[in-house]
Specification:
single chain, alpha+beta, 4 strands, PduO/GlcC-like_sf
Length: 139
């Protein structure tokens, strides 16, 4: 489980990384059960990006893998993807931009971003997770 201090550290590291990249983004930290722990919208990030970041983080936490992996799986299953989004109240967001957060090989939660390209979002999240001493895989 991620503590609020750990979530805030992830947000701080993510904000620093998006500033380095020069792209304003929003971030969301979910626990392993998909509950929001903390969120941040950097100056200039699109207003909708906070909701998108939460959806991506929820998806990464739900599957313990980057949200991009769900996009790959769902590209050929658009009806199933829509059904999952409906069943989860819109939380399922199979788009690149979130990574799981593992601590000592256990899923602790996920960090999601929105505001850049999907790859920029995911890269910023991965850098923040690593900077805070976590991993994006169980190994």
């Amino acid at each position: 489980m991620l503590t609020s201090d750990q979530a805030l550290a992830l947000l701080s590291a993510a904000r620093e990384e998006c500033a380095r990249v020069g792209v304003p983004m929003s971030f969301a930290v979910m626990d392993a059960a998909g509950h929001l722990v903390a969120a941040l919208r950097s100056d200039g990030a699109p207003w909708i990006s906070t909701d998108v970041a939460q959806g991506k983080a929820w998806t990464a936490a739900a599957y313990g893998m980057p949200s991009a992996g769900q996009k790959s799986k769902m590209d050929s299953l658009p009806n199933f993807s829509t059904a999952l989004a409906t069943m989860t109240g819109g939380r399922f967001t199979p788009q690149p931009g979130a990574v799981p957060v593992y601590a000592d090989g256990q899923l602790a939660g996920a960090l999601g971003a929105s505001g850049g390209t999907g790859q920029q979002d995911e890269d910023v999240c991965s850098a923040a997770v690593t900077a805070c001493g976590f991993a994006t895989t169980a190994n």
